[in-house]
Amino acid sequence: MIPAQFEVVIDKREKRSCSNGCEGQFVTAPLPLRVLPKSIASDSLIAHIAIGRNLMAQWMIAVANQLQPLINLMKDQVEGYDIAAIDATSFHVMNEPGRQSQTKSYAYCIRGGPPDKKVVLYEYNAYSHKDYVDETLAHFNGVLHCDASPDVTLSYCNAHARRKFEQIEKSAKKGKAQVSTEAMRM
């Protein structure tokens, strides 16, 4: 697979005149055969577009299954160190079997491991936020930077509180939001 590149391809065709002295008669070499003649879309672009999302999703599931032992080793690195972080982004999955499209799902970013073996994992979760964190980091004994509340020591994510102080500081006149300025500094 060559990453997306866009270029203009100019097809030059040989044009010849009649060799028997026929006046005004020219023969032009035919264009190469193409999937969509007279289209600006190349055959490779059409092939790229034709590979459906379902097929690509099936490939990703197959790759994930093959890489599960590696993912397990990476989780062991996270669980074996005393500091980790986990954060989720919610989104909706369309046409997921057994779930309504309006139901929230989550993509998690898990970071941890020792400094010489840092780990970053991304995982999909379709159920409860807290249950997922508790289950995913069941063997983790350390300080966890997150918004959830599993049964570990939390360092809590202060981004939510910080946002409020940031809004106050931006909307206040210079020097008039001393409390929020101090909170942002801290």
What general form does the structure show?
A: elongated
Q: List the helices and strands in order.
A: EEHHEEEHEEHH
Quick one: biggest sheet? 5 strands, mixed
Question: Gap between N and C termini, in Å?
Answer: 48 Å
Which sequence of strands runs across the widest sheet? 5-4-3-6-7
Mean pLDDT: 83
Regions with pLDDT < 50 over 5+ consecutive residues?
none
Share of residues in strands: 15-25%
Structural classification: alpha/beta
Radius of gyration from CA coordinates: 29 Å
How many alpha or pi helices? 5
Number of extended strands: 7
Provide the helix percentage: 25-40%
Brief summary of the model shown:
By secondary structure, the protein is of the alpha/beta class. Helix content is 34%, strand content 20%. The strands form two sheets. It has a five-stranded mixed β-sheet with strand order 5-4-3-6-7, with helices on one face.
Question: Could you walk me through the main structural features you see in this protein, from its secondary elements to its overall organization?
Answer:
The protein is an alpha/beta fold and 186 residues long. Among the domains are: 92 residues, no CATH class; 28 residues, no CATH class. 34% of the residues lie in helices and 20% in strands. It has 5 helices and 7 strands, in the order E-E-H-H-E-E-E-H-E-E-H-H. The longest helix is centred in the middle third of the chain and has 27 residues.
